[in-house]
Amino acid sequence: MCLAKPQAYMNLSGRPVRALTSYYRVEAEESVLVICDDIALPLGALRLRGRGRSGGQKGLGSIIGALGTERFARLRVGVGEPPEEMEAADYVLGKFGEREAEAIEGAIDKAADCVELWLREGLQVAMNRFNLRKKPKPQKKAIALDSNGKVLESSPSPGGLGVDVCTEAPGKIRRGGQK
Questions:
Q1: DSSP conformational letter for 28
Q2: Torsion of CA 149, 150, 152, 157, to 10 degrees
Q3: Which residue among 1, 8, 38, 137 sits deepest, i.e. has the most Cβ atoms within 10 Å of its Cβ?
Q4: Element (H, E) at 62
């Protein structure tokens, strides 16, 4: 393993990464993991991928151009979006506030664990453990009531589409959680 931090600006890091892959005679797809910031991810979130476009991240764009492939692992660390009045470059190069710094310190610890797992067990295992997962939206329930307000039937709405259904006509329909 070789851990390298290019001495070039991140936006120009393609050439040093290419030099390393040539020197060590390794294929990017099997041996390279790039770690970078990502303003499109929530603060402290991680996203590991085995390939893909730069997503506007200029350093990744430089590396993709120099290696001639998008097929290399990259671990993006979420830094959140810049405030409306601030340029993205100024935001990512600036200092974090105290609260944000704590979140980033935790993300750095998680990122180190992710890299170790990637080295030991491979990309897929590390992706499964560390990638940000979206929480499923709660399903609405359809509840059929009789004329006295007694529940006749309660079931999830079909396909989680938030549609109220009632299979018993003589009752009233109430949306989940509403009275």
A1: H
A2: 60
A3: 38
A4: helix 58-67
Among 84, 37, 91, which residue's Cα sits nearest to residue 59?
A: 37
pLDDT < 70 positions in the chain: 132-179
Percentage helix, strand, coil for the chain under 3-state DSSP, each rounded to 5: 40, 15, 45
| CA 55 to chain CA centroid, nearest Å | 12
**Distance in angstroms (rounded) separating the CA atoms of residues 77 and 125:** 18
* C-alpha–C-alpha distance, residues 81 and 91, integer Å: 8
| Domains defined for the chain, CATH in brackets | 10-130 (3.40.50.1470), 141-175 (no CATH)
The pTM of the full predicted model, rounded to 2 decimals, is: 0.70
| DSSP codes joined into one string, 112-154 | HHHHHHHHHH-HHHHHHHHS--PPPPPPPEEEEE-TTS-EEEE
29 SS3 class:
helix
Structure tokens at 130: 């560390």
pLDDT of 89 reads: 82
Reported as type and span, the H/E element at residue 48 is: strand 46-49
Strand (E) or helix (H) holding 35? strand 33-38
Sign of CA dihedral 53, 126, 37, 32: negative
Instruction: Report pLDDT for 3.
Output: 86
